[in-house]
Amino acid sequence: MLRMLSRRRSLWPDDKGMLSCDQGCNGCREDQCKRGHNGKLYCDDAEKGSDTKQLAITLAISAGTGALIVMVVIYCFKRNKITCFWKKESLNHQTVEAFIRNHGPLVIRRYHYSDIKKMTNSFRHKLGKGGYGGVYKGMLQDGCLVAVKVLKESRGNGEEFINEVASISRTSHVNIVSLMGFCFEGSKRALIHEFMPNGSLEKFIYNKSPSKSDRQLEWETLYNIAIGIARGLEYLHRGCRTRILHFDIKPHNILLNENFCPKISDFGLAKICPREKSIVSMLGARGTVGYIAPEVFCRNFGGVSHKSDVYSYGMMVFEMVGGRRNIDVEIDHTSEIFFPHWIYKRLEQDEDLGLHGLMNEEDHEHVRKMIIVSLWCIQTNPSSRPSMNRVVSMLEGSLESLQIPPMPFLHSPSRSPEDSLTTMRRL
Questions:
Q1: Catalytic pick among 248, 266, 309, 419
Q2: CA–CA dist 419, 397 (Å, integer)
């Protein structure tokens, strides 16, 4: 009882201004209780202040430690992402380097990126661009003009780059563009091709201004271009050590030299397969809308093979004949005209083809052969299409020996001008 009463007793200032305790240090903590010179006990307020300061320091240290832990966690997370990205890039780099090593020494030369900048004069003269990157005019040390295709950084896993180098390095044909070198340095990738002064076939067939004579080609020239492309595809399918399927035949990928000799280019979507293998496996569709064979995007129509290139070739030759894309997107969509169907009806009824610039009987014969061959090439069933070897024979043979095939079952899907340049990549 006395102990409880002593704890209730208050403290009072002593003569030194300190709080004294009458019966020991019952009003403060033990570490705050002091004995003065007179022998009396008192509570030291300085110790209380020291405790408050110590508490503040402890809280500050705890807060700093927490912030440091958060920063470490964030750093580790970012470091992990960077490491994963680096590992991915490193893996892609190793894939390409392994290909170059396994196929070496390649006949074509490997350049440094500094060489690419030098030969293109720091990319001053741009020839064109696409989803892959840009093409620039360049010059080698010996004065030879070249076209340098600079691929976009971090594009896929290097498959398109490998396809291009692997495919063209295996070829040697007058109707296949020559690869003269390449650059693979870190994320920098470039392909050096022979320079083609007349650019792509595309700019010569989609003519919207007849007054521009530099964009018009005579029918004989178009006919010879069609034969040249067919010979190039025949070589890819049968003339190489391994069969090469292009999968992106279209006017944009046909280049013309100073004499309008056509050369097939852009092998980014190509697939190399053994010559004895007729059907190839793919994970998804590849090619450009408007030129893709039915079996490429739907296996119900048949297996994917070299006949898929035949279909693309037929659609392209139709555009060469019509001077426009097979679907006329400038007219009302409720009455779109699919050019192959339109020309088929006229051909079947022996009507005038309604084509301009046919100067003589030879032009008429060339055009009719191109149309009949194209109709055979775009047959829905791949087995009904001729091989490219047969296509060349049909074009170079007599018109009388050609029979008009059945009308193709499929109607080309509607598309916009942007869709016609859209490339479907492997899923």
A1: 248
A2: 36
